[in-house]
Amino acid sequence: MEELQSVLENEGLTVTFDPMKGRCLIANKDFSPGEVILREEPYVCAPKSFASEAVPVCQGCFKTSNLKKCSACQLVWYCGRSCQLSDWKMHRLECRAISRLDMNWRNVVAPDICLMVKLYLRRKLQSDKIIPTTATDNYKLVESLVAHMSSISEQEKFLYARKAEIVKLILQWPDINDKQTVENFSKLSRNTHTITGSQMEPLGIGLYLVISLINHSCSPNTVLVFEGKEAVIRAVQQIQKGDEVFVSYIDTGAATMSRQDDLLKQYFFTCTCSRCLSHDPVHDDIDGSFKCMNDKCSGVYESNFGRWFMMDYINLGDMQKALEYCRLTMPTYQRVYAGFHPLLGLRYYTSAKLEWVNGNKVIAVDHLDKAVDILKVTHGTETPFMKDLLGKLEKARGGAPFEF
Ligand SMILES: C[S@@+](CC[C@H](N)C(=O)[O-])C[C@H]1O[C@@H](n2cnc3c(N)ncnc32)[C@H](O)[C@@H]1O
Questions:
Q1: Short name of one Pfam family for this protein (predicted)?
Q2: Which of the listed residues 126, 242, 286, 304 has the most CB atoms within 10 Å of its CB?
């Protein structure tokens, strides 16, 4: 812990302890919106799913195009030799373990099981000194993660016990302690993050040992985005020296009761952030605010249950109808994702594209401008996605012909 403290202090951060929240990450200096607070590679990570219909992801860099399968296990993908080589020490063991499974079984290994297998493989590789350990990259930090064993239900323990059997079957290490694996599954559930692409599409899951120190707020002062599988925490509000660093574990657009419910069920705490305490009804309820404005209609414009009419119409190629739905949902996005929120920035970007293809060039440029203003803070300016976006804005402003 002392070693970790001294590494973090160099980054302008410190770890403290709060009786209610446990460990907390505190800023030791001021951070402005858009400034990177932390960058971290995962201790272990796994693509979203190995199922054959899932979009394949490079296990080295999380790219999704021009991939080739590992010819031995037929399950893991790489974009090229350099990613394959960088993952080789881990994949050599993983490949051998997975290849023992029948092909039908291999395709259904869930990401959290895959993560657990890798957790044990990495522990072994580090204890055998095949992979080096550092203050921020060692199994001792996994041991200190919260598991909430006394709070989880018998049903959840039973589920983890079944998963522990599968881990044992894959690794075939007789000395694996089932009780510890059950506890580790609970740790994964409280501490892993969904790895997303530049447009916030889920690509996989990862365990980030320093980022796991960050507590939750429904009105967070930072945002978590990913560059490949590297996690980046950026300030989205002015953070003063001494302030706690917060990130959101859940969709901040959800209603207070639904947010509190989700946090209690998965993370075992009642949130006391300013939004939860004020229970601000104006800010509340993304679902309710997507209801059709016609009192006699029970329809919604967009719902959390996969009915995104705007996306449906984009996929059907009906851009006029897609724009109609985009315009209907925009006020809700502006309200529930106010400030520097990636989802608002991305919605402005989609709106700009739809306005552009429908011939409304002035609104399109204005919305592209708004998208860039937000995404520059949440995503920085150096990723290929942001460079492309900035290039488009420059061309659109100059009236040059370009494709969205
Ligand atoms: C990812 S960990 C965060 C770091 C944690 N405090 C620790 O000591 O390792 C998530 C856990 O931290 C605690 N936590 C996070 N945010 C909190 C908050 N706003 N209020 C109370 N507890 C919180 C909960 O116990 C939660 O399950």
A1: SET
A2: 286
- Between CA 138 and CA 1 the distance in angstroms is 11
3-state helix, strand, coil in the chain (%, to 5): 45, 15, 40
Whole-number Å distance, alpha carbon 111 to ligand 1 midpoint, is 23
Residue 253: pLDDT band by 50, 70, 90 thresholds?
confident
Q: Is residue 191 within 6 Å of ligand 1 at its C-beta?
A: yes
Which amino acid residue places its CA nearest to atom 15 of ligand 1? 215
249 lines ligand 1 (CB under 6 A): no
Catalogue all structural domains in the chain, each as residue range(s) with its CATH number: 43-194 (no CATH), 288-398 (1.25.40.10)
Q: Give the single-character DSSP code of 279.
A: T
Q: In this structure, what token pair is assigned to residue 120?
A: 């044990």
pLDDT (0 to 100) of residue 354: 96
Give the residue among 60, 79, 83 at the shortest CA–CA distance from 69.
79
Instruction: Report the C-alpha gap between 396 and 111 in whole angstroms.
Output: 41
Number of other CB atoms surrounding residue 12 within 10 Å: 17
Give the residue among 193, 208, 218, 210 at the shortest CA–CA distance from 13.
210
